[in-house]
Design goal:
alpha+beta, seven-stranded mixed β-sheet, six-stranded mixed β-sheet, 21% strand, globular, FAD-binding domain-containing protein
Length: 463
């Protein structure tokens, strides 16, 4: 291959991950079309976390973050299940000073609109195009492997990179990005068959209007500017997570409980709202203040939770997976959106004028080597934190907490590992190995050599 060239890129899925990919690749100089299966490209749900490792890319891409009306988090607070008294607090006051970027909490729809404006509006590169009512199906998913190859060509021909949509329309691209979520059709087309099981916990989500809560004389949790947790210290599935968004005007509650008390594994966002009695039923001994908040909850929706084993690969030929399509994870590290944003950033780097040599398949092979280990690491840590909040980033280093206990102190996931990561260093190391060049950088898998982690591990030190 002779060098950089502009590509025609097709992004399947117009959610947060898809818009991020379109934005990053547009800025890298490529012509991007986003294909959305429904008649609009939007997001459902409520809050979404964006820690420094995600926020940094929003700034690098020139996104107007203020449009997302975020809450800048100042603390992580774990409270006693019955009394609401703080059990473990992780202070984020010096977070921006340490890592260069704040920890944002967005309303999902606002964040999506913010990214969509950046992907399709004014700015560097050709504005991305959005095409709605274009669905891809992996019709061969449940067929034997030898038949799957025949069926694949009805959806994405991996030899010609031609996408065939349900409506009969076809489109050919140089690069295809599958950003179509946890139920990804593109994943099936690539021949990946997830090993998965329903989580042992279920979740109901509810929104609470801060003004309404205050008028009723309830605690104004928006003043804490914090991610707040009730429970999670006892090795049980019962846990309440509160995340403020929309500048604190909305309180987004995620309510976890054992699956035998309510199984929503086959349901999805957008279904008919559940009654408030169903939300309150699992929690007879919960802190009365938060229980009163939940009693005025609106838009009560089930969130299906599945535990996926890591996938063996996330690309084939000129097609790759991004976000939940490539590494779905439990929500308990608040890193799902950040991992999708990092995926998009990796594509933007690998296909920019400095690094892309014209070989799409080679660049995607490096993308897989850069992204799959890091996302898998977070995926595993999120599964641990589901039933032990001490495994969650931040709380994982609060060793003075009376109830502190982790599976393996040397394997905890820490803020240092997430926010000291240098993707450019990771890309350069992996590209050099792929191309047979000498790597002289000071990073190992994107982490600075000599970095001391709270787990006691020093990057680059011999075991």
């Amino acid at each position: 291959m002779s060098g950089w060239r502009p590509l025609k890129v097709g992004v399947i899925g117009g959610g947060i991950g898809g818009m991020s990919a379109a934005l990053a690749l547009r800025r890298a100089g490529h012509d991007v079309t986003i294909y959305e299966k429904s008649d609009f490209a939007g997001e459902v749900g409520a809050s979404v976390s964006c820690a420094a490792n995600g926020t940094r890319w929003l700034h690098e891409w020139g996104v107007d973050v203020a449009k997302g009306d975020p809450v800048v988090l100042k603390k992580l607070i774990n409270r006693d299940w019955k009394t609401g008294e703080p059990v473990s607090v992780y202070d984020l006051e010096d977070y921006e000073k340490r890592w260069g970027y704040v920890y944002n909490m967005f309303h999902r729809q606002y964040m999506h609109a913010m990214l969509k404006d950046s992907a399709m509006g004014e700015g560097d590169g050709i504005p991305a195009k959005l095409v709605v009512n274009h669905r891809v199906r992996a019709s061969g998913n449940n067929r034997p492997d030898h038949l799957l190859i025949v069926q694949q060509c009805r959806d994405i021909d991996l030899n010609t990179n031609t996408i065939t949509f349900d409506n009969g329309v076809t489109a050919q691209h140089d690069l295809v990005v599958g950003a179509d979520g946890i139920g990804s059709a593109v994943r099936g087309i690539l021949g990946i068959k997830p090993e998965k099981k329903p989580s042992d916990s279920s979740c109901l989500h509810a929104n609470v209007d801060t003004d309404e809560a205050v008028k009723l004389g309830l605690v104004d949790y928006s003043q804490d500017s914090a991610l707040e947790y009730w429970g999670g210290q006892e090795g049980k599935w019962d846990k309440i997570v509160l995340s403020p968004c929309n500048g604190g005007k909305l309180l987004s509650y995620y309510c976890f409980f054992p699956r035998e008390q309510g199984d929503y594994a086959t349901q999805a966002w957008g279904a008919e709202g559940r009654p408030v009695e169903e939300l309150l039923k699992p929690y007879p001994n919960l802190d009365p203040q938060v229980l009163k908040h939940l009693s005025i909850g609106k838009e009560i929706q089930p969130w299906r939770l599945w535990v996926h084993e890591p996938y063996p690969y996330i690309h084939k030929g000129n097609v790759c997976l991004l976000g939940d399509a490539g590494h779905p994870m439990m929500p308990h590290q608040s890193q799902g959106a950040c991992m999708a944003i990092e995926d998009a950033a990796a594509l933007g780097i690998l296909f920019n004028k400095k690094y892309f040599n014209g070989d799409v398949a080679q660049s995607l092979a490096v993308y897989e080597e850069v992204r799959l280990p890091r996302a898998t690491r977070v995926q595993a840590a999120a599964a641990k934190a589901a039933y032990n909040i001490n495994e969650r980033i931040g709380f994982s280093v609060n060793k003075d907490t009376a109830t502190y206990k982790v599976e393996d102190p040397k394997k905890i996931l820490t803020i240092e590992e997430m926010n000291a990561y240098d993707m450019y260093g990771d890309v350069e190391e992996k590209l050099a190995a792929k191309r047979g060049d000498r790597y002289t950088g000071k990073f190992i898998c994107g982490l600075p050599i000599g970095l001391e982690l709270p787990s006691g591990i020093t990057i680059g030190a011999s075991a």
